[in-house]
Amino acid sequence: MKRLSYEGVVAAAPVTVPYVRYSIESAHWWLGRALGGLVRGAGVAKHEIDGMCVSSFTLAPDTAVGLTQHLGMSPRWLDHIPMGGASGVIGLRRAARAVQAGDAEIVACLAGDTNHVDSFRHTVSQFSRFAQDGVYPYGAGGPNASFALLTRNYMRASGATREDFGKLCVAQRANALHNPHALMKKPLSLEQYLDAREITEPIHLFDCVMPCAGADAFLVMREQRARALGLPYARILSTIERHNAWPDDPMQIRGGWAMDLQEFYEHAGLAPRDVDFVQAYDDYPVINMMQLEDLGFCGKGQAPEFVRRHSFTFDGSFPFNTNGGQLSAGQAGAAGGYLGMVEALRQLTGQAHAQVRNARVGLVSGFGMINYDRGLCTAAALLARSDA
């Protein structure tokens, strides 16, 4: 069955509520600030936003429906997307189809979390039934141990070195220095990366994201509405999502992107060589390597060599995570899955702090819900400048 195009539906009005390391506010407060930013930035009244997608780890015991009462909203279309780092792309694609079908005219896609002193420990302990029963009681809870296994296996299979992972981290830090919202404000050298303290072998300090509080958001609407509002926008060319991909792999060496790669590019009428920049979910460097391979930029096991050939800075070859990504901007819970999306929208509408020259097509990739030995959710979107 041929998929419908997204023609006539666009994304606009990227908003970031500046991140902080810790916050005594609730997730509701952060999400409310993001909604306020959308209303002010787009010049729309709150009641004109008749659809909403929400992603948050710390919103509980509320879900998206509880948030509507807190925010004084009355949407006719609502979705709650608890998919972590894949939430931004999945929110985009579902909102786009809702607008396309006429179920909503303007959809606010919101993601945000607070970070109390004990928020991360609580989130890890309650993350999933698998975590509660099979991992956390034995002291292996949290992503560090899981990604240590994935990283060690990837290094053994591909020949990747810590220097390869470090090159990505150093490049992202260089990009982050231009991003006023990034929490990491100091340059990072490869020597500093290599000398950093070990967390869980082979992962060291700068391989790990910093949990923080913050929110990101954007709007989805018809192109005519964006023009009437005077909003710069990006066109949606193609999206994919996949869950629990390759379940028979004894350990994750590939993500769901690889299952849908051909359809992804064919739907947009593009190839990997047509992409001007990539915003990839980056809670650990190994997942960057996996995305470079599974999204078609190099062959399986060839990402280390690909990394050695490129600079990854916004003004160099293969611009990658041009706002610093989570590794240098911080991980505001579920907003980590929106970080790449709002940056892609800024790049394609000329609003980026570190602008990629002549950027016409961008790719956003998401990865989420790690369950000990694999991430369960993957997604990707191809977006284009309005005149591209």
UniProtKB/TrEMBL annotation:
InterPro entries: Thiolase-like, Thiolase_C_2
MF annotations from Gene Ontology: acyltransferase activity
Protein name: Thiolase family protein
Domain Thiolase C-terminal, chain residue ranges per copy: 264-370
Pfam families: Thiolase_C_1 (PF22691)
